[in-house]
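Minimal example, chain plus S-adenosyl-L-homocysteine.
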Amino acid sequence: MPNLGHRPGRRVFIETYGCQMNLADSELMGGILGTQGYTAAPNHDEADVILINTCAVRERAEERVFGRLSHLLQYKHARPEVLLGVTGCMAERLRETITERAPYVDLVVGPDAYRRLPELLAEAQTVDSDPVVDVKLDREETYRGLSPAREPGIKGWITVQRGCDKFCTFCIVPFVRGRERGVAPDEILRQARDLADRGYKEVTLLGQTVNSYRHEDTDFADLLQLLVGVDGLERIRFTSPYPTDFTPKLIEVMAGHDKICNYLHLPLQSGSDSVLEAMKRLYTTGEFRDLVGQIREAVPKMAMSTDIIVGFPGETDEDFEATLSMLQEIRFDFAYLFKYSERDGTYAARKLPDEIPEAVKKERLKRLIEAQEEISAEIFKAHVGQTMKVMVEGESRRDEQDLCGRTDTFKTVVFPRPTTDHIKPGDFVEVIVEDATSHTLLGRLVS
Ligand code: SAH
Ligand code: F3S
């Protein structure tokens, strides 16, 4: 064990941006630092180390990060011993500009270097000038043997795959998170059992193309089957699968186990074959349609959501109309809809000019949102009169008299708290749906 050269009991505050994978990575960093005597600070004021775990996927986040850093500089002014670090997907890119634009930053650490965080922090404490930087990507690192620091709760996530090998032409992820690696199944099981032992009821398996998961002889269907055997875990979710990585065996496993939730996030990106090709997505619209058909045949109640990008370079009005009609044909329960934004270093940024006017992108996005709102409202309204099994998550955000939870199809359900308040988070209750918006089911407890 290296001499880390710092006092034990130092407190760290991690600010997290972006996806669930980043939230999971913040827990991982918390766990790694925890083994070296660090504890979580309740706020910035009481932190000796402030880390911002950044996201680079969809926005021009760089300006925002520099803005945030200059705001956080006040904590260093107040207490010069405070260390300020940048981690995550933007670390890679920031390395080039940080010394110039935010020389007061002490530390820049990429997603494959978290194991070394304690040493890097110790180094940052001793050097006064340039930031300590480690953004090397590592083809092997899966953080085996390390336990993320998780707050008590009922829903947890486990990163089962790191990196991505697909290289969609719009996407920065393969560049900032490196090559695809599957975490060993025994490691995943260890974490799942630990969650169950601590009272967690639901786990979400995370990976950029999670169903291409492989570790030695274990594929994703095998992994799901292993997790179904973990006593105490009642619900298993995963995100995001990639359309061409489904196998008949996986669909069979999904259909065969109640614990595996009837909800799939299946990114379509575009309903036009030529755009899909330019995006280097590895399926056609026909293949996507067939896959949805197979899944719905195996699991008729499967709820689905998707990701779509509008305004990708070269997207014509006809391409966009094809996307709109595919959205209307498939009828996803909900959809995450984005305007294309160029990411430096990607194939699209190098070869495909981002020429669609912002106004056109905006208009297309608006039309998709309107269409999806209508579909979602219809699908949600169709639940009125049905009795749903709901895992209670806690108080409703809108009204503390109400409780909220989710169905296994990932729909939020809000219902009045009973007067005899015996229900706690993690409980399963039956709720009869009486009304619905395009995002929420409203109901009452079946007593
Ligand atoms: N494999 C992951 C993708 C991560 S990025 C997954 O399937 O969830 C999440 C979503 O962000 C993508 O599906 C895509 O719709 C969107 N996205 C990624 N890069 C983008 C870009 N340059 N512009 C707009 N949206 C983008
Ligand atoms: Fe990005 Fe495509 Fe991988 S969207 S994360 S390169 S599957």
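The longest helix spans residues 358-381. Residues 1-6 have pLDDT under 50 and may be disordered.
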